Amino acid sequence: MAKRKIAKKAPAKGKVKAKAAAKPAKGKAPKVVAKSAKKPALKVVAKAAPKAPKISKKPFGQDGKALDGVKILDFTHVQSGPTCTQLLAWFGADVIKVERPGQGDITRGQLQDVPGADSLYFTMLNHNKRSITLDSKSQQGMNVLERLVKTCDVLVENFAPGALDRMGLTWERIHSWNPRMIVASVKGFGPGPYEDCKVYENVAQCAGGSASTTGFHDGIPLVTGAQIGDSGTGLHLALGIVSALYQRNRTGRGQKVLCAMQDGVLNLCRVKLRDQQRLAHGPLKEYTQFGQGIPFGEATPRAGNDSGGGQPGVILKCKGWETDPNAYIYFITQAPVWEKICDLIGEPEWKTHPDFAKPPARLPRLKQIFERIEQWTMTLSKFDVMNACNELDIPVGPILSMKELAEEPSLRETGTVVEVDHPTRGKYLSVGNPIKLSDSVTEVARSPLLGEHTDEILSKVLKFTPRQIAEIKASGATGEAPKAQAAE
Length: 488
Ligand code: CAO
Hints:
The protein is α/β, with parallel strands linked by helices. Helix content is about 40%, strand content about 10%. The site of oxidized coenzyme A has 24 residues, from helix 4, helix 7 and strand 5. Oxidized coenzyme A (CAO) binds near residues 158, 160, 167, 188 and 200.
């Protein structure tokens, strides 16, 4: 990362004053604020101003990327870690993926659909990265790793608990080599009784409270298709890393960033812990089971398709549901649009009827209400229902299949769904960067072949001499790199 001068620490007193001065008291005219600019506290701000970079004159999107200059030692595998480093790569970081010679990230060979080609599991999680093969358990491999640590800004890993230490890469050692290094880890659990456990997606969904609150109240717990344990935690980790990089601009030093998958899932299940506490004060009236007269137990129950926001909502059939498994729509009877819903479904008298006019009166009658709405939705396709509702500002959610999403032109236009070409598997679709920055435009590049950039990284990034590179290779530390050019 381009080194920035670390700002001289302003005296604590001055800082506080500067903060206070930045907050004009209510009702004070701007003039007063301008006057107060002469006070010593604000001089701190004035001094800091020249250090701020000049405002770019280049058009938006043409002045590099958000994380240009940041180098990531990517020691991640499977899904959670790679999700994180892929995002960082999309924001412009140089992500160097270190893989075990011969095998690489285990997902390269998992769920293979094209014989001999890296799986979609791998390619869709490792765009815009470079790959170096390295046996971290060999002496030469460790020598290369040491130089990588000294060169990079962030080490990201999601090995099993203790694996990094067993490799010899303890925090103390890393920090002694490079005090600016940020060491970011995904683990299944945080410190506590389960900290040594290996964890996969569904384990995290179960341990983080998602499974116990997903499904119908009379059915077994369910996991969700959204990879909230893996990709969700990868997202959390990316935010932690970017925050640590920002703090390093001030402190000059790196720090540890830890995201436990259990914590990440629980964070995404925040509303369910909310409901757990509401239970102490009575039944959860917006849950369907309340209207059905089913008593609540001690813990937040599975709520089927009820909306987490407290507005009654269900999934309703649309035209064609008999043959199309996705001909459904999510419908919410939001209080502010209730009257429009009544008109739309042909029940205008419900707007004033005492059984239906107000939300509390509707709660015990939700079954009857949704059955009536469904009579209407079944006469239309899900898209027609959506159009009719959106015209009246009634929010609804058509159940879109993966096929429909893959073919949706607007998602292609925004780069949320992208077509990528790959030398051994040909063209495939991927999800692009879902986070759009107006001044840091994402270009999705294919994932690297195993060890494709070993030579390039050893020579150009780590500056080993040709003789040193020959020695490293002769030791077997890098294994045999594939002939990438030939494959293309
Ligand atoms: N050179 C030499 N050895 C290497 C290496 C390299 N380049 N890269 C990895 N290894 C070694 C590790 O050092 C480790 O060796 P030891 O067990 O001797 O210490 C070994 O490979 C296996 O690593 P692992 O235990 O992380 O892998 P696993 O397949 O047994 O477990 C997983 C996988 C995901 C369960 C585990 O890594 C884990 O719990 N990670 C944290 C949570 C997580 O991210 N889970 C999400 C996974 S996606 O669903």
